[in-house]
Design a protein that fits this description.
This protein is of the alpha+beta class and 191 residues long. It has one domain: 2-Layer Sandwich (SSo0622-like fold), CATH 3.30.1960. The chain has five helices and nine strands; from the N terminus they run ααβββαββαββββα. Strands 3-2-4-8-9 form a five-stranded antiparallel sheet. Strands 1-5-7-6 form a four-stranded antiparallel sheet. The two termini are 17 Å apart.
Length: 191
């Protein structure tokens, strides 16, 4: 392990959490803690997965998050959120899987982490940067997105909304199962 990595890890872990929530999601906190507790790894960002509503203003490439939940939602909860949305822009319903960015001390550490991902059945894990930093990205595969509002007009009827939410909640449950399997395999890195 290089002194560059040791310093990078120390500085990264000392920084304030820059996420809008200001803390690590409960659903991924144990994995983040495990990896950061090992000398060869340092997490740089994470999300446990979420269901969200985002506003997209077509001329701009950025979007605003109107609502996000890291847990499954009931139809009643979603109706309450939708009742508060008054946007002249397009609003999209999105379900995203977990994501984890990890800096590794060296290629051997990265290879060990990739093996842990493979053992957990994670298909979307890889090295995204080689050089002074060896950066990995680990993702779940559950994802869906659909347009809800077009220029302020709701496009979805209640029956479709219920089916969409059921599908998103199912994907969130699969996402949690993948995280659990990954935690089990990542624990072998400590051995």
């Amino acid at each position: 392990m290089t002194t560059v990595f040791v310093l990078l890890k120390k500085n990264t872990l000392a920084k304030k959490d820059k996420s809008s929530k200001g803390s690590i999601d409960a659903g991924i906190a144990e994995i983040v803690s495990l990896l950061n507790g090992l000398s060869d790894y340092c997490t740089t960002s994470s999300c446990s997965g979420r269901i969200m509503l985002v506003e997209k203003d077509q001329p701009k490439k950025e979007h605003a998050v109107l609502f996000a939940s890291h847990e499954c939602l009931s139809l009643i909860q979603l109706h309450e959120v939708l009742g508060m949305i008054h946007s002249p822009h397009d609003v999209w319903f999105r379900q995203e899987s977990f994501i984890l960015h990890v800096t590794c001390a060296d290629l051997t550490a990265a290879q060990r982490l990739l093996q842990a991902c493979n053992l957990a059945g994670l298909k979307r894990a890889g090295i995204t940067a080689l050089g002074e930093r060896i950066q990995m990205e680990i993702l779940g595969t559950e994802y869906m997105e659909t347009l809800f509002y077009k220029r302020g007009e709701c496009l979805v009827e209640d029956r479709y909304l219920k089916l969409l939410l059921e599908e998103a909640n199912q994907k969130m449950k699969k996402n949690k199962e993948r995280l659990s399997r990954f935690l089990s395999s990542a624990k072998q890195l400590a051995d």
